[in-house]
Amino acid sequence: MARILGLVNMHTSPELGAITKNRSLATLPFLGRYAFVDIALSNFSNSNVNTVGILVNKAPRSIIKHMDNAMSYTNNTKLGKTVICYNEKHASNYLYNTDINNIIENEWLVDEVTYKYVIVAPAHILYRMDFNEVIEQHIKMNSVITCVYKKINNGKSEWIDQDIFDINTNGNLIGIRKNFGVSDDVNVSLETYVINLDKLKEILGFSNETSKFFNLKDAINYLSPMLKIDTYEYKGYAEIVKSIKDYLEKSLSLLDFENLNKIVSNDWPIYTKTHDTPPAKYLKNAWVRNSFVSNGAIINGKVENSVICRDVKIKENAVIRNSIILSGAEVSKDAVLEYVIVDKGAKIVNVKELKGTKDNPLYVGQGDVI
Asked: Which of 25, 84, 187, 218 is 20 to 30 A from 342 (CA-CA)?
């Protein structure tokens, strides 16, 4: 692998309403024991990119708590590192709180002369990508910027309002625009870029002089008519999470091992912070089917097609279907939950039936007693 700096870009992560009020989507629990940021960090680690900066846009406490000492994500603990980059100067002003301004405020990271290339990846798009393959094309084509995309044939209904690429016959980017659902066949941006370090520094200076409101995508789009920008077609599994509906739907879709194996396998693990908790315990009334159940959970009810996070308590004869129960939550005896997301530490005690829908899941706030 060439000398590479990885950047996880949390600035492009969408808001999911109340569930991301005090946390970024990147630190939202995922599949019971992970967070979304673990997917991006593991892609870097599995690609032998050992130095990674996390561009934090809000709520730094949640990412600091999740990362702990960050050693879980680095293969080379002597030469590699994972650092949190927070733009304290502009954190309270969303217009200035951009990925570019964050990099400028933490420019010491890109000033280290050991890097030749920078890979920027998002935290809210689920994919399994070997960055070696992107870098190989980037070097072979003598590129200065390579933008990663995926061809889809259902653009009228999926990835709506997300960025799509206009690409010429030579494979060069000629513009970025929103997907308004006009055409099925579109090239959706995976918000993943390979940029030569010297070109990134030029972009930082150019954006500083042109518009302090520019983010990285804006700068690339602005430069596309005058600069040869190459593209890389990714052909694997990719899903985007941009709403609380997506959060539930994409999580439950990975209960299908065929889908799950598209992002994680024995040779492509997902790394995360470890917790010293006992295995899940199943009591005499437990009945569990097609679900992820994390360590520390105690189950004495019925769980079907759901994700149960660490240290959750499901009491006697409670029924959980098509739901996500986050760490430390408790569901009382005889309660019935369907299409519900219960945040950390919440307790379902006095209400015996909570039902949302697939398109409009019900959300119970962190620490709330219902």
From this structure: 84
pTM of the predicted model, to two decimals?
0.93
Per-residue CA distances from 200 to 134, 145, 146, 327 (Å): 17, 9, 12, 40
Q: How close are the terminal C-alpha atoms of the chain, in Å?
A: 52
Distance of alpha carbon 204 from alpha carbon 215, whole angstroms: 10
**Which residues contact residue 68 at a Cβ distance below 8 angstroms, ignoring those fewer than 6 apart?**
273
Give the residues across from 239 on adjacent strands.
126
Residue range 181-237, pLDDT digits in tens: 999 999 999 999 999 999 999 999 999 889 999 999 999 999 999 999 999 999 999
Residues 6+ apart with CB under 8 A from 235: 150, 151
Q: Are 341 and 320 in contact (CB under 8 A)?
A: no
The answer to whether 361 and 244 are in contact (CB under 8 A) is: yes
Q: Provide the 10 A C-beta neighbour count for residue 248.
A: 25
Contacts 24+ apart (CB under 8 A), 86-90: 86/56, 86/60, 87/56, 87/57
H-only helix segments in 176-215: 197-210
Average pLDDT in the 8-15 region? Answer: 96
**Rounded distance between C-alpha atoms, residue 313 and residue 351, angstroms:** 16
